[in-house]
Q: What sequence folds into this?
């Protein structure tokens, strides 16, 4: 289409005749035109031959006249003359071409190939001699020349060609070729002399190694060792020189290892590694490690592994000096090395060096102070100080240095922003181990004064408890509570201390002071602890009044459903004496105060009414579940049925939104709520249930109906067997939900 739009396919049905891909390719092949081929000419006599040659020469001459720089035309011309057997004419063409471009290597090679095909060996030699004289830096001419002489078994001539070539100091392949030729004809001394000239021209480590390996392979171990020693003297003993000659050291050590001179190999490795920095000798360390694993003792192997890992850690801390995990691993490595040397009984000098290495790593690590003033950035850093101090205290027994480390760590931390209680506590514990209690107290007091923390208070209190200084513990708890009066845990711990010291009035006063605070972090824990305390004391005194008083105060303050349940369960359980008193009075068989089930039911009933008045439906359900469980454990079946009758029904209802739409929601319906709110409807449903219970063909219609029927049975004090039968009905739940929903709508109306 002219407007560029694609044509719309109107008929998408398959064509009647299908064409395959194979048929398309076959048709294309058949329709191809045949390529043009020049007709073959047949020469019948010499006259026609001369005429043909003259015509071809004229064509070639015309081409090279038009493009004299096109070497392809010259090569084609010369090759044609050679194919006609006119070698003199072919040489003439090549010589004319060389006058145009004498540095064309392809032209020289084609010229040589023509002479070799014509078996004109002397001509080929002359050409190669001219080529290498004119172009000595083209290795291909030399290779051709040497190959030709060796092919003609003219070994002295080939050696002479190599000598001319070596005078130009060619690349390594040329020297290797010369050496291999001498090896083929078993001229090993000549090959050794060639190696000597080679390293003089190009004194590189790999050339020295090749020469030494050559001497080693032909069994001249002493000469190979002399070669290595000469190479090492040539490179020198300085760091840069040794670094350059690492390959020579490695090969020398491997040769000594191969001939089982392990001490010589070890000395070579250690000599090289002692003069190289760790960052430059990774490969040499790897070879040394492998050598020690195969031929060394346990100590030498471990030292080698440590050195290798030191290099790795040095690289990692150089890349990221604030990666404290790497510093931990580095310090742990040095500590393990020190312990191993100590266990192996090394001399004092070696142990002092190992200790200095550990201290050096720790000093470098703690010098990397975090840049950010955030506590999370300092957490790993502080442990470096702690591990450093522990090492000095435990391993080196340098207690003065350990004390200085703790002081330095405390001076580094910005205590105005944050602090670390572990640091203060570890310092104080260190002073306790040094039997300096006064300094330990001073350290913890300073920490609390600079930055009071809960963990510091707890650690200080734990210390004084271990020392049995209860007056100091009381003072610390007072300071603790003054610092944070809302901490329920502190109040509980303080009161528990007084209870353990048998100062009951003081403990009770602390509990009273704690629950009187306006704000508490977890008041439920404090109340529970206070109640448990009074329960224990009630077991001693055979009295429930104090616990009841606490529950009364708690339900007035919170009114939580769990408080009601806990209170009721307390009333329904026996108040036994504590275990130690019971053990002392086994002969009397005193079981304490018995359970008051009626009082427990009164508490359940009171809590139910309170929650009902407050309109808390979910809490009422929780209380009824707890009540039911209590009756199942302690009451009769009638008691359980009475609680079960109060269980609610969950029903579907609808409410109208402000937009006018109706929203579905689920509501909890209690039988007693319905009876009070809609007495007429309730009486109607009650009569309907009574009629249905008499009819044996229909079962109960829903949970609410069961509850209402149970409530009616309770009021009339008569047991109806039909109601119990309805609790197991299996009618369609959708019908029950629809009926319940309709009943709920009528109640709302």
A:
């Amino acid at each position: 289409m002219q407007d560029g739009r694609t044509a719309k396919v109107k008929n998408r049905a398959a064509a009647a005749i299908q064409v395959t891909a194979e048929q398309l390719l076959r048709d294309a092949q058949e329709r191809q035109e045949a390529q043009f081929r020049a007709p073959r000419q047949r020469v019948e006599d010499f006259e026609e031959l001369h005429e043909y040659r003259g015509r071809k020469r004229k064509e070639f001459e015309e081409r090279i006249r038009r493009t004299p720089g096109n070497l392809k035309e010259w090569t084609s011309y010369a090759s044609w003359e050679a194919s006609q057997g006119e070698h003199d004419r072919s040489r003439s063409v090549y010589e004319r071409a060389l006058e145009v471009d004498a540095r064309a290597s392809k032209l020289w090679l084609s010229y040589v190939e023509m002479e070799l095909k014509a078996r004109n060996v002397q001509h080929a030699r002359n050409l190669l001699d001219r080529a290498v004289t004119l172009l000595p830096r083209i290795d291909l001419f030399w290779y051709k020349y040497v190959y030709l002489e060796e092919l003609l078994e003219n070994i002295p001539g080939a050696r002479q060609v190599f000598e001319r070539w070596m005078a130009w100091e060619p690349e390594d392949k040329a020297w290797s070729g010369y050496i291999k030729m001498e090896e083929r004809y078993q001229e090993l001394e000549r090959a050794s002399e060639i190696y000597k000239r080679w390293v003089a021209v190009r004194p590189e480590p790999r050339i020295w190694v090749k020469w030494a390996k050559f001497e080693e392979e032909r069994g001249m171990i002493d000469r190979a060792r002399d070669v290595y020693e000469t190479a090492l003297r040539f490179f020198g003993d300085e760091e840069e020189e040794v670094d350059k000659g690492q390959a020579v050291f490695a090969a020398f050590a491997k040769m000594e290892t191969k001939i089982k001179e392990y001490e010589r190999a070890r000395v070579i490795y250690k000599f090289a590694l002692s003069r190289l920095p760790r960052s430059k000798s990774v490969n040499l360390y790897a070879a040394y490690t492998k050598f020690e694993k195969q031929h060394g003792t346990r100590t030498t192997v471990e030292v080698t592994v440590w050195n290798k890992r030191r290099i790795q850690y040095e690289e990692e801390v150089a890349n990221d000096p604030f990666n404290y995990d790497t510093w931990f691993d580095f310090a742990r490595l040095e500590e393990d090395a020190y312990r191993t040397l100590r266990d192996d009984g090394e001399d004092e000098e070696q142990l002092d060096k190992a200790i200095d290495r550990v201290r050096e790593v720790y000093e470098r690590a703690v010098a990397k102070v975090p840049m950010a003033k955030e506590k999370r950035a300092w957490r790993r850093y502080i442990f470096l100080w702690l591990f450093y101090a522990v090492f000095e205290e435990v391993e080196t027994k340098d207690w003065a240095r350990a004390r200085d480390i703790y002081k330095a760590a405390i001076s580094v931390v910005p205590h105005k922003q944050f602090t670390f209680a572990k640091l203060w506590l570890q310092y104080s514990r260190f002073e306790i181990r040094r039997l300096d209690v006064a300094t330990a107290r001073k350290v913890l007091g300073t920490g609390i004064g600079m930055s009071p923390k809960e963990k510091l208070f707890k650690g200080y209190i734990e210390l004084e408890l271990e020392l049995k200084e209860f007056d100091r513990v009381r003072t610390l708890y007072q300071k603790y509570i003054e610092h944070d009066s809302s901490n329920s845990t502190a109040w509980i711990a303080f009161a528990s201390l007084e209870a353990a010291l048998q100062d009951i009035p003081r403990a009770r006063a602390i509990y009273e002071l704690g629950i009187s605070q306006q704000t508490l972090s977890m008041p439920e824990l404090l109340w529970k602890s206070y109640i448990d305390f009074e329960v224990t004391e009630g077991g001693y005194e055979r009295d429930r009044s104090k616990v009841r008083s606490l529950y009364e105060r708690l339900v007035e303050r919170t009114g939580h459903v769990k408080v009601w349940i806990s209170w009721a369960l307390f009333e329904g359980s026996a108040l036994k004496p504590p275990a130690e008193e019971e053990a002392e009075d086994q002969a009397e068989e005193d079981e304490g105060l018995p359970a008051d089930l009626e009082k427990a039911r009164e508490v359940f009933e009171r809590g139910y009414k309170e929650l009902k008045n407050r309109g808390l439906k979910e809490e009422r359900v929780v209380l009824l579940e707890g009540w039911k469980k209590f009756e199942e454990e302690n009451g009769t079946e009638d008691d359980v049925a009475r609680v079960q009758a109060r269980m609610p029904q969950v029903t579907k209802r609808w409410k109208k939104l402000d937009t006018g739409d109706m929203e579905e929601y689920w509501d909890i319906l209690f039988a007693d709520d319905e009876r009070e709110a809609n007495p007429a409807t309730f009486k109607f449903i009650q009569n309907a249930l009574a009629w249905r219970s008499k009819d044996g063909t229909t079962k109960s219609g829903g949970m609410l109906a069961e509850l209402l029927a149970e409530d009616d049975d309770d009021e009339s004090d008569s047991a109806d067997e039909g109601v119990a039968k309805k609790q197991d009905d299996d009618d369609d739940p959708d019908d029950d939900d629809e009926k319940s929903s309709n009943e709920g709508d009528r109640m709302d109306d």
About this structure: The chain has a mean pLDDT of 81. The longest strand covers residues 649-656. Residues 43 and 49 are 6 Å apart (CA to CA). Strands lie at 649-656, 662-669.
